[in-house]
Structure formats: C-alpha cells, structure tokens
Amino acid sequence: MEPSPSTTISIPLPRSIKERIYIHLTHRAKAITIFVTTATPDDAAAGVPTPFGSFVYSLPDRYNPTQPLSTPLCAEEETIEFSTRLAKLVARRTGLPVYVGCSVSFKSTGLGGSVEEVMEGFGAVVKGVMEGLEGLKKEKGVEERVEGLRIED
C-alpha cells in the first residue's frame, strides 16, 4: 500500500504577534483529512501539546451540491463551528468527503477572538488548505489519485 500524499503548512495567525496556525493535510484516494491547530513557535519546539478540539466529518450531498452534509464526531464548544464550516467548505469545493480535526484558538489575537479575527483566520486557513490541495495535485505520481479535485472560488 502506497503512503497517502500529505503536506504540513504553517501560516501566521492574523492579528497575533507570535502565534501560528499549523495545518496537516492528507489526501487519500477517496477522502481528505485536515488537522488544524494553533501554537507559538516556542510551544511547537518544546513539544507542548495543544488540547484536542472538535472532529467533524462532511461529505457532498448528491441531491443538493451547495449544502454538504456534516456530523460532529467529537464536539468541543470552542471549535465546533470553525471545524464544521471548514469541513463543509472543503467538501463542497472538492466534491470529496472530508475529516477535519480542529483545535484553533484565537485567544492570543488582539481582541481575543472577535468575529473579524475569526473570519480573517478562517480565510487564511481556507487559502492554505486549498493551496495545499492544489500542491498535492501537482506532485508527480499523485495526479491520477486527485483528478476529481475541483478548486473553485
């Protein structure tokens, strides 16, 4: 069995001084898994664990393609909305089932996680995930596995 193509992405958390968003993206033959968390470079270097957040499964709806179906497999109040929104968006854009694990925290941002900060962070995560998927699609030997991938704006 061949290993699934995966990539790790690190982007700065918007409006935060040291905090970063870390994304681990794996594209399997028939599903995508995404794990998203936040940490400072010091925490990441020291191996400080981040708390487990929400874990959501989403899949495209054949009868209503604009509204993917989703179900939380593990729900944490602080991250369930972010996880569900990300899973549904990626499922809709790619047409594939998606698993999202999310423990993103916006407490270290300037206003402590205002709506604007969360939406800016969500936009950064979506951009990172979609670029990561496109990069996996372009890797040599992976093209036939991800030929069904559609990147839409």
Automatic annotation (TrEMBL):
This is Uncharacterized protein. One of its GO terms (biological process) is proteasome assembly. It comes from Podospora fimiseda. Pfam families: PAC4 (PF16093).
